[in-house]
Design brief:
about 475 residues, Aldehyde Dehydrogenase, Chain A, domain 2, 2 domains, 6-stranded mixed sheet, 15 helices, 21 strands
C-alpha cells in the first residue's frame, strides 16, 4: 500500500485543499494498491501562482542553457536509477505487462538524450546575415521561454508522456504545472520525488493528479501561457478551442488508427512477429498501435491465419507475471468499451477470426479482454475508423499499392504507421505516400531525434529532439 496524502506543489510537498484520498485500484483484481490526494482548482491556483512568480521573478528562465541542461541530466540519472520501481508502479496501476514497462525504460533514456543533445546544439541566440551587405543594421534572433506551461498527460504511458513535455519545457527555461491522471497518482508521485531531488528552484514545477474538470480549469487559467496536451482527439478539440479563445500557445498529441501495410513480397513471419509489438504493445492501449493491418489479396488468408496463430499464442494474465504479454485494461469502463467494440464488429459483419467479447476464463475479477482479430473488414466500418484502444486487430484486403495507400490514408487520423517489404526502396516509396507523422519500415524503432506527432485529427505540433524543443520557445528579433 502506497499513500501520497500531500501534493507536490511548486517543488515541495504541501497539504491539499481537500483531505479526501482517492483509492487506486489494481486493474488485475480490483484490490486497493494505494491512496492519493487529488488536486482541486484551489491547488491549481497555488501551483500556477508559484509558476508565474518563478517565471517572472525567479532565476530559472534567466539561467544559462548549460545549467538547465545539467539539472535535466541529473533528473535523467535519477530516473534511470529508479527504473525498476517505475516499471513496477506502472504495471500495478495501469495493468501494463511487466515486459512492456521494463522495455520502455531504455526508451526514456534515448528520449531524454535526444532532447539534451538538441539543447546543447540549439541556436539560443543567432545573428542574422543581412540580405543587403551594405545594410548598417544587425539583427539578432533570441529564442526565449514562453512562460508558464500547463502540461496535461494521459494514463496509458505516463512517464513517457510526462518526460516528453517537462524535459523540453524546462530546458527552454519555462515553468511547468504537470497535470496527471488520477489512475497514475502512484507513479507520478514517484516522479515528483525525483523532481524534488533534481534541484529545481522553488516554483518551477508542480505535479498534480486531478480529474477532467480540474484539468479544464488549469488549461483555462489566465496565467498559463502554453498548453501541451496528450490524449484523445475529442479532448484535444476542446483544449484547442479553449486555447483559441485565449490565444494561448498549444501543442496536441492526439489519437491514432494506424495502418500496417504488408506488401506482397514481405517476409510474413518477420512481419507478424513485428506486429506483435507494433500492434499490441501496452495491451493495445497505445495511440501509435498499428491496429489496421492491410494485406494483399494474393496473401490475405495467409496473413489472417498468421495473425490468428500469433494472437492465440499470447499469454493474457497478471501484469507482474513474466510470462504475460497482455494484461488488463486500466479501468472497468475501458474494459467495457473494448468489449462493446468487439460486439460492434460482429454486428457490422466482420469475420471474427479469434477472440470475442467474453472475458478470458479465470480472470473475471480483473479488467481483462480477450485479444481479438477481425477479417473481411471494410475500411468504412467503425472498427476500422475509430480508435478502440485495446488488443483488437482488423485485417483489410487491398488490390495493389495504390489501393493500400488509399485505404491507409482513408482515416481522420494520421499519427503512425508501418510498411513491411523485402524491398526497402519499395517500402520507402509507400511510406512517403502515407499521410501520417511517423512511419516505421520493417519494425524499425521510433527515432527520438526526429519529430513525433500527427497529421489531421492526430494533433498539432511535434515532440522529441530539436523540433520538440522549438515548441517551448518564443522568437524575438532585436535589430540595432
Amino acid at each position: 500500500m502506497i499513500t501520497y496524502d500531500q501534493l507536490f506543489i511548486a517543488g515541495s510537498w504541501a497539504a491539499p485543499s481537500s483531505p479526501e484520498l482517492l483509492d487506486i485500484l489494481s486493474p488485475h483484481d480490483q484490490t486497493v494498491i494505494g491512496r492519493a490526494a487529488q488536486a482541486q482548482p484551489a491547488d491549481m491556483d497555488r501551483a500556477v501562482a508559484a509558476a508565474r512568480a518563478a517565471f517572472d521573478e525567479g532565476p530559472w528562465p534567466r539561467t544559462a542553457p548549460a545549467e538547465r541542461i545539467a539539472v535535466i541530466r541529473r533528473l535523467n540519472a535519477l530516473r534511470e536509477a529508479g527504473a525498476e520501481r517505475i516499471a513496477s508502479l506502472i504495471s500495478a496501476e495501469n495493468g501494463s505487462a511487466r515486459w512492456f514497462t521494463l522495455a520502455g525504460q531504455p526508451g526514456l533514456t534515448r528520449q531524454a538524450g535526444a532532447y539534451l543533445k538538441a539543447a546543447e546544439e540549439f541556436g539560443w541566440e543567432e545573428t542574422l546575415t543581412p540580405s543587403d551587405p551594405a545594410s548598417p543594421t544587425r539583427s539578432v534572433v533570441h529564442r526565449e521561454p514562453i512562460g508558464v506551461v500547463a502540461a496535461v498527460i494521459p494514463w496509458n504511458s505516463p512517464f513517457s508522456a510526462a518526460m516528453a513535455k517537462i524535459i523540453p519545457a524546462l530546458l527552454a527555461g519555462n515553468t511547468v504545472v504537470l497535470k496527471v491522471s488520477p489512475e497514475n497518482s502512484l507513479s507520478m508521485g514517484f516522479l515528483a520525488e525525483l523532481l524534488e531531488q533534481a534541484g529545481l528552484p522553488e516554483g518551477v514545477i508542480s505535479v498534480l493528479p486531478a480529474d477532467r474538470e480540474t484539468s479544464e480549469y488549469l488549461v483555462s487559467h489566465r496565467d498559463v501561457d502554453k498548453i501541451a496536451f496528450t490524449g484523445s482527439t475529442r479532448a484535444g478539440r476542446r483544449i484547442a478551442s479553449l486555447a483559441g479563445e485565449q490565444l494561448k500557445r498549444v501543442s496536441l498529441e492526439l489519437g491514432g488508427k494506424s495502418a500496417a501495410v504488408i506488401l506482397p513480397d514481405a517476409d510474413l513471419d518477420k512481419a507478424v512477429q513485428g506486429l506483435k509489438y507494433a500492434s499490441l504493445l501496452n495491451n493495445g492501449e497505445s495511440c501509435i498501435a498499428q491496429t489496421r493491418v492491410l494485406a494483399p489479396r494474393s496473401r490475405y488468408e495467409e496473413v489472417v491465419a498468421a495473425l490468428k496463430d500469433l494472437v492465440e499464442s499470447l499469454r493474457v494474465g497478471a501484469p507482474d507475471d513474466p510470462e504475460t504479454f497482455i494484461g488488463p485494461m486500466i479501468r472497468r469502463d475501458q474494459q467495457q468499451r473494448v468489449r462493446d467494440y468487439i460486439e460492434l464488429g460482429m454486428k457490422e459483419g466482420a469475420r471474427l477470426v479469434t477472440g470475442g467479447p467474453e472475458v478470458p476464463p479465470g480472470l473475471e475479477n480483473g479488467n481483462y479482454v480477450t485479444p481479438t482479430v477481425f477479417a473481411d473488414v471494410d475500411n468504412s466500418m467503425r472498427i476500422a475508423q475509430e480508435e478502440i484502444f485495446g488488443p483488437v486487430l482488423v485485417v483489410i484486403a487491398y488490390d495493389d499499392e495504390d489501393d493500400a495507400v488509399r485505404i491507409a490514408n482513408d482515416s481522420e487520423y494520421g499519427l503512425s504507421g508501418g510498411v513491411w517489404s523485402a524491398d526497402q526502396a519499395r517500402a520507402l516509396d509507400v511510406a512517403r505516400r502515407l499521410r501520417t507523422g511517423t512511419v516505421t519500415v520493417n519494425g524499425a524503432p521510433i527515432a527520438f531525434d526526429g519529430p513525433f506527432g500527427g497529421f489531421k485529427a492526430s494533433g498539432i505540433g511535434r515532440e522529441y529532439g530539436t523540433v520538440g524543443l522549438t515548441q517551448y520557445v518564443e522568437y524575438k528579433t532585436v535589430t540595432v
